[in-house]
Amino acid sequence: SLISEYFIIKIIRYYQKIDFKNFEYYLYLHFWQYPLIYYLRNRNFIMSKTNFKIIDENLYERYKLHKEKIPGLFFDRDGVLIKEKNYIKMAHKVELESYSIKHLRSLLNLDFINIIVTNQSGISRGFLNWDDYINVTNEMKNLMGNPNLFAGIYANSLRDNNIGNDLWRKPSPGMLLEAAKDFPIDLSKSVMIGDK
């Protein structure tokens, strides 16, 4: 049909523009303003138009072997891991908080699952898009170096939780509950670290 042909052409054209060196895990398509990410190497995908998560495959495989649940350390991103720069859009502007690497590396020796949960209302406000968010997140991970510190990174783009009854935006617990589905996290023994 004409509609099918239209979408096939859109997919082919977008394939040609993808830089897979930068989009190691992502094939990010926009149809009628709705994002769609195809499952590629890792378990990384957009849950909906407003919710996004990145799962580290190696840590996922490691933690799924645990028979007992493990406490989680949930980190905010802006103002905690990277310096607060309102609605940061450009990857080259990412700066780690001075204490981030030293203290986070010490946590690797503790029995916690490290998770990032971040509100990114700048996306719904039009100050940045999911591509910008991905680039900033990748730069943060690059600056932190290897091995990767975080098992999962969860983000929500809404300004408030009244849109579509979405429960991911903090202070609602949706991102924490989603992480507890992906990993054997004991929420009753977990800690949330934020700046506000």
Characterization of this structure:
With 196 residues, the chain is an alpha/beta fold. Helix content is 28%, strand content 21%. The protein has five helices and eight strands. Strands 3-4-7-6-5-8 form a six-stranded mixed sheet. Strands 1-2 form a two-stranded antiparallel ribbon. The longest helix has 16 residues, at 2-17. It starts with a helix and ends with a strand. 24% of the residues are buried.
Can you give me a brief rundown of this structure?
It contains five helices and eight strands; from the N terminus they run H-E-E-E-E-H-E-H-E-H-E-H-E. The chain has 196 residues and is an alpha/beta fold.
Estimated share of beta-strand residues: 15-25%
Distance between the termini: 52 Å
Overall mean pLDDT stands at: 76
**Using DSSP, what is the number of strands?**
8
What's the Cα radius of gyration? 17 Å
The largest sheet is: 6 strands, mixed
Order of helices and strands: HEEEEHEHEHEHE
Q: Treating each run of at least 4 consecutive H or I residues as one helix, how many helices?
A: 5
**Helix vs. strand class:** alpha/beta
In helices, the fraction of residues equals: 25-40%
